[in-house]
Amino acid sequence: MVNYIKFIGDYSKLKSQGYTFQKLFAGNYMQWEKDGFRVWKRGAELTIDDLTNYEGSFLKMLINNRGKEAKLVANNKFLHVVKNNETFEIESSEEALKAEIDSRKALMTWYSAADELMPEPNEIKHNVCFGDREKWLEDRSDALSDQIGHMPKHDTYRDSIPLKTMLALVKMFDANEIELGTWVDEK
Q1: Mean pLDDT in the chain?
Q2: 3-state secondary structure of 132
Q3: Residue 79, beta-bridge partner list
Q4: Cβ contact 115:133 at 8 Å
Q5: What DSSP designation does 184 have?
């Protein structure tokens, strides 16, 4: 299941709220945009530039932490979160932030060990460009796994979401303009 933000507000009020209307793509999709928030008429969906593909998970996190908003905010400008590239889930707990840091450290340790095995640039075969470390590592992943173990899985990354984005979403949710929607991901 994938979460998204469903727009349930009144499209006719968007212009008076400062949104700019435009038609996009060959299908003339109707869209209203303001400060990186995009309301799409087709699919009744709200997308946010700061949260591409994570909008629904972010709203779900805000709903689940209702009344604890002050605890979520690390400072007065950004909310630090961990995004999962595979599930498109988003978390802001201290445990999730620490786990992401530990995962990144393990990956960097693995890369350092792999770099020790990487030949000098003039020894790299002609089909690998100078400095193309990732290609070299990818081509030799099985051999490297035998020598230094498998590359640690790292499917999360830390991000900072502007506080204004969180506050705008809370305001829209409280005004009953948006709700959490879900659809089944058919992978």
Answers
A1: 82
A2: coil
A3: 161
A4: yes
A5: -
pTM, full prediction: 0.74
Can you name the residues that pair with 34 across neighbouring β-strands? 37
Mention every residue, 6+ apart, whose C-beta is less than 8 A from residue 65. 71, 72, 92
What residue type is assigned to position 25 of the chain? F
Work out the angle between the directed axes of helices 163-174 and 55-64 (0-180°, nearest 10).
Answer: 70
Q: What CA–CA distance (Å, rounded) separates 15 from 18?
A: 5
143 contacts: CB under 8 Å, gap ≥ 6: none
Residue 185 pLDDT grade (very low, low, confident, very high; cuts 50, 70, 90):
low
- The residue type of 143 is A
Coil, strand or helix: which one is 91? strand
| pLDDT exceeds 90 at position 182 | no
Distance of CA 113 to the CA centre of its chain: 29
User: At residue 177, what is the residue type?
Assistant: E
Angle at the Cα of 147 (from 146 to 149), degrees rounded to 5? Answer: 70
